[in-house]
Specification:
Blueprint (H helix, E strand, L loop, with lengths): L4 E5 L4 H12 L3 E8 L7 H11 L4 E6 L22 H4 L11 H16 L3 E3 L15 H14 L1 H4 L5 E3 L7 H10 L24 H12 L12
Parallel strand pairs: 1-2, 1-4, 2-3, 4-5
Helix pairs in contact: 1-7, 7-8
């Protein structure tokens, strides 16, 4: 039988690249889905395209949406990205880099794409261990969305069970990096930074950069990402 199709949400970051590699290793034909949503780090989409090609995605769609109409996030509004926060500060609540309902919106698009492709599987790279405290990165969110998908789609009503895969959900950043390396991910192609320069150089100081750097340090490997000069 031909490989089953799967939709994989791909931001161009470390986690989503590893998730795409996992989906491919599990034998799926992977259809990558990325979003241009007014994010200040839109340069990540170039990374997403490179990763999709490198890891053999069957297709890669970039969909344009505009949550800037709502505002309220340092990633989509004229609000400074927090820098140089220590571990205690990062654990101290939902940060201003949270984009309202972002993963709900992304998964809704992925759900529509899956219905058209006849796919019963959606992969996303959310993580509830080394993350920034976002409410839509928790197992309860994944479970609730999966239940909703069965009620809200023709496929679900007709008995085609959709599975939302979040393979990194309980993994620390160092374990995610190690798994990605095992599967051949070139992390030099990825971009995790919330506030990169126009040429893609990472700041090294935002929450995402710090978590990434700590993850590589824990496994004793250099981070191949480019960082801004001091």
């Amino acid at each position: 039988m031909p490989p089953a199709p799967a939709v994989v949400l791909l931001s161009g970051g470390l986690d989503s690249a590893t998730t795409l590699a996992i989906a491919r290793a599990e034998g799926f034909d992977c259809h990558a889905l990325s979003f241009r949503y007014g994010q200040r780090h839109a340069v990540e989409l170039a990374s997403a395209s490179a990763v999709a090609q490198h890891l053999g995605a069957v297709s890669h769609r970039i969909i344009e949406i505009d949550p800037r109409a709502f505002g309220g996030s340092a990633l989509t509004d004229d609000i400074p990205v927090p820098k140089d926060r220590d571990e205690a500060a990062r654990a101290g609540g939902i940060p201003i880099t949270y984009v309202p309902a972002r993963n709900t919106i992304f998964l809704a698009y992925a759900l529509g794409c899956a219905e058209v492709l006849g796919a019963n599987d959606i992969f996303l790279g959310i993580n509830a261990v080394d993350y920034s405290g976002y409410p839509d990165c928790r197992p309860e969110f994944v479970e609730a969305f999966e239940r909703m998908a069965h009620l809200a789609t023709r496929a679900g009503v007709e008995g085609h069970r959709l599975t939302i895969h979040a393979p990194l959900l309980t993994m620390g950043k160092s374990a995610i990096i190690a798994r990605g390396l095992e599967l051949g991910v070139d992390f030099g192609m990825t971009l995790s930074c919330y506030d990169p320069e126009a040429d893609g150089a990472s700041c090294g100081r935002c929450d995402a950069c710090q978590l990434r750097l700590e993850g590589f340090q824990k496994i004793g490997r250099p981070d191949p990402a480019r960082y801004q000069s001091a």
